[in-house]
Amino acid sequence: MKIDTIRACSIWRALEVVGDVPVLLIMEQAFLGKHRFQEFLEETGIVRSVLSNRLAKLVDVDVLSKHTQRQKGYHLTEKGRGLFPVALMILRWQRRWESGARGFEVRMIHSGCGNEMLPEPKCDQCKVEIDPRDVDWSPGPGLSQVTPVYGRRRKQTAAASAKRGNRTMTDSVIELFGDRWATLVVRACFTGINRFDEIQRDTAMATNILSDRLDRLQQQNIIKAYPYSPHEQRFEYRLTDKGRDLYPVLLALLQWGDRWFADEKGPPLILRHKPCDHNLHFVPTCDKCGEALDVSNTGFNL
């Protein structure tokens, strides 16, 4: 049976904007303080025509603004600055799981306490670090079904990554979240959808594409397959510890999507934090002093 619609949660809506490798590379450089077209071109290795196209799209959706004076370039809007927790959680995952994969290490500095730190995803009510196993999901008032439009966004090849060299901070995780199909598989696993047919219904992917993404996620040790039938080659796909640690990235995407794309009915999903029994709102905090982090009090040293 052909599946025409999928759950329109705020993760999906956020990925409509940022679920693209060139966009994520541009945003990375914007948070590092780059503004001009030539800086983006040199630091990301993106082809000029693609860079021009993505910058124009980010301006159209009000994530970046383009200054009238060309030399002043592009600047983050309020909506764009709202993606900073996503960037922090991406970098946190990179440091925790693939710190030796690059030719250099990025140090994050919290100006509030002056310490090098690693951001922690905390519940803003009970201040406990968030574990996805301690979160319940339930339908929200804005939950709806949408017809997915999967545009042709090419997967990044090894050659493309090599061309960039080691200039970007988070290649592997950026490439994961730059692939909306792979991200929707991870979303499904976090919401208790683990079998091939169930994931296919939840994402409306073609079976060959789903098979490819499941293989890739297993190769990256994000998920692991477990047989559930003694008579057939049937598997459940479960998140590994490495995969579960992607949860703060998805949570940051969901909150950003709720903030900017939820309709007047409210958010599509309600998250409840079981340790404190409050609706969950996550805040990135400094692991040294516990203060909330934002773009104004966080610096980077390469």
Could you please describe the fold and organization of this structure?
The chain has about 300 residues and is of the alpha+beta class. The protein has a single domain, classed as Arc Repressor Mutant, subunit A. The protein has 13 helices and 14 strands. The strands form 6 sheets. A 3-stranded antiparallel β-sheet has the order 5-4-14, with no helix packed on it. Strand 9 and strand 10 form a beta hairpin. Helix 6 packs antiparallel against helix 13. It is globular and about 65 Å long. The N and C termini lie far apart (about 50 Å).
Provide the domain count. 1
| Continuous helix count | 13
For the sheet with most strands, the description reads: 3 strands, antiparallel
Structural class of the helices, strands and pairings? alpha+beta
Percent helix: 40-55%
What overall geometry do the principal axes of the alpha carbons give?
globular
Q: What is the CATH superfamily?
A: Winged helix-like DNA-binding domain superfamily/Winged helix DNA-binding domain
Indicate the radius of gyration in whole angstroms: 19 Å
Order of helices and strands: EHHHHEEHHEEEEEHHHHHEEHHEEEE
Give me the side-by-side strand order of the main sheet.
Answer: 5-4-14
Sheet-strand content, in percent, reads 15-25%
Oligomer: single chain
Say how many strands there are. 14
What is the rounded distance between the termini? 51 Å
- Contiguous low-pLDDT stretches (5 residues minimum) are 152-166
